[in-house]
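Budget justification, computational time. The allocation requested in the original proposal was used primarily to generate structure tokens for proteins on the priority list. As evidence of use, we reproduce two of the resulting records. The first is shown immediately below.
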Amino acid sequence: MENKENMMPENKMGTMPCGKLLMGMAVPMMISMLVQAFYNVVDSIFVSQISENALTAVSLAFPLQNLMIAFGGGTAVGINALLSRSLGEKRQDMVDRSANTGIFLSILSAIVFAIIGAFLSRPFFMAQTDVAEIIEYGVDYSAICLIFSIGIFSQFCFERLLQSTGKTTLAMVTQLTGAVINIILDPILIFGLFGFPRLGVAGAAIATVAGQIIAAIFAIVLNIKVNREIHISLRKIRWDSEVARRIYTVAFPSILMQSVGSVMNFFLNQILISFTTTATAVFGAYFKLQSFIFMPVFGLNSGMVPIIAYNFGAKRPDRVKRTIKLSLIAAISIMAVGVVVFETIPEVLLGFFNASEAMIEIGVPALRIIAINFLLAGFCIITISVFQAIGNPMHSFIISVCRQLLVLLPAAWLLSKTGVLNLVWLAFPIAELVSVAMCAIFLHGTMKKVSALENAEN
């Protein structure tokens, strides 16, 4: 068995020049993430045409959606890291077990969130506001997204299987498919075009889940037909204690880290809504807009993580270091573009959301203040993913908890006591400064671990 495993062919992640490899792996994912960001924004743009309350409802739904993304994306990170490292170690048995167990875990997660969507959507919105219209819009939107979450969980899983073996172009195609379907269906279902009923906010949710389900089906077919390095079998899609433990060793801190974001969003919405519901709508619009800047960096991460994990597993520290350096340069460059855009044309950006005069007045300084932290965030996003790829996911979790729960929320709450809304937005750059300091400290220790591979080889 050992000989058979050692005969596995060398993957391009261990041979291709790092710059060319990172570009080939990351660019398709960055494009697909940009399209993803585009359809998320389009979603909110169409919803904002209904009313500001509709936009506020979708904004208040974000913590629930983010929690779902945390479990789906976090589990996918764990699958990706274990599978890529197993490829680097030439362990075909673990490659297949990682894939099949990962599929099982994704299905299980979808069932849990379907139950949450069916029974907890209304209590969730009633805990945040007493505006009946916002509650009804929010329940319609979140219940549909969560009950039919099998699409997004399957999409996360099967796209990461493609990414893990270097087939990021195919993963991009599946994401583009889902995004295009969503964009096409949004106006049709929201406004009742071409003979379809006018479904309003519920139409936006249906368009979203339809795109996710079709993209997931496409990703499943591609894995079965094209991804020869992974062997998926219905009989093997089951619980595997050892593999689940190894997946969640990486995934659980990532899940907790992103879940912390849901907690932060929930309580920050409460701080903002104490000023006015318009402030919550601005915060929701900001999150949609910043995805144009952050999503390409997350796409870069998707290309970077399997390269680092593979070469760490193959004991090639020079390739690990080179990939990290190139990723940091690319991420900070992307964020610099974001700073320029947010600082120079905030009125134009808010105008996409049918912004009222009050929304413009609140939103312009908000976007300019929050954009200060973009360059710092670029460094943090890359380093946090490096920790996950190399097997130090607790570093990522500690940084996220400190940034969002121990710094950002308390700072926002204290600043809100001044009664000046604009000061609340300063909590973002304050929290990012703390995050950068912690990332730098942990990265120093992680690079020592990488350098130890070199010494071990010698």
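The second record produced under the same allocation is shown here.
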Amino acid sequence: MNRTTTGQTNFAVVGCGLIGRKRTLALANVPGAALLYTCDLDANRAADLAKLAPGCTATTDFATVLADARVHAVVVSTLNASLAPLTLAAVRAGKHVIVEKPGALNAAQLRTVQAAAQQTGARVRLGYNHRFHPALRKARELVDSGVMGPLMFLRGRYGHGGRKGYDREWRADPALSGGGELIDQGVHLIDLAGWFLGDFAKVEGHASTVFWDMKVDDNAFLSLRTAAGQTAWLHVSCTEWKNMFSLELYGRTGKIIIDGLGGSYGKEKLTFYPMHPDKLGVAPEAQIFEFPGADDSWSIETHTFVEDIRQNREPAPGLREAIRTFEIVETIYRQSGYPVSEAGL
């Protein structure tokens, strides 16, 4: 196993589109991380991205990346259909991997990657960067401090309006995406819900295609319940028209509302309402936290992954969480009559 416990951690980025660029820029902000390769089937895209990192080599040959013993870790940021095959190849070559969500086309592919990672000792982190947004980090801090009391339930909504021709892009092709809006943005909400409430014992809901001319879902509605009875009520949509993100957490002694993710989703803001049992029915005073700065979630997530490698610790979210998220997605698709990808590795 190719490990690094001290010193520099060397990366390669595979997939040089929009997300690959975000990952490359994030690496530049992580102390002790260096980018050795950019890799893409499009040589021009790989070359353009390599310009952002002095001394970086652009290539179209992934085998060259895997054969280089100087490379400790690989960022996989391609279309969904390529995520698991590339991750599996990297893991088998002894490389650590941060792979963009959802990580595969189905849960079975992730289980294959998980088995390989257990054999080689490679660490695999799923790119659920929403956990690292400042409002979500603040929510985690408040919940962990105990001011919310035991959590009872949460509500989450996430959506966008697509764009002209959206139903002809790769996300609308189940062979390339594995599914629609539930796999695209829905997995973020499922991951966040599990982060706060834990594993879900009961999964109910449905997905549907109500507007876009495509074979995958454009809306999904989920009711997830833990064994203890905590509920996550989630809705994701690409018929939202105005981009939006909202997450509400309800505890016995407090409530958190998170709105926005920055950019087109609006200013990121967290409002905390402390509830005093002896003042039931009295409107609580709100504590408001606003986060107008640039999105630093990608850099913090990457820094956390570097620490995963150096400390030889299991990433969270890692393959276990990603598999469970996919199992929920597949349950909803089966309940709704959508086919579940059976692509193997």
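A brief technical remark on that second record: The longest strand covers residues 151-159.
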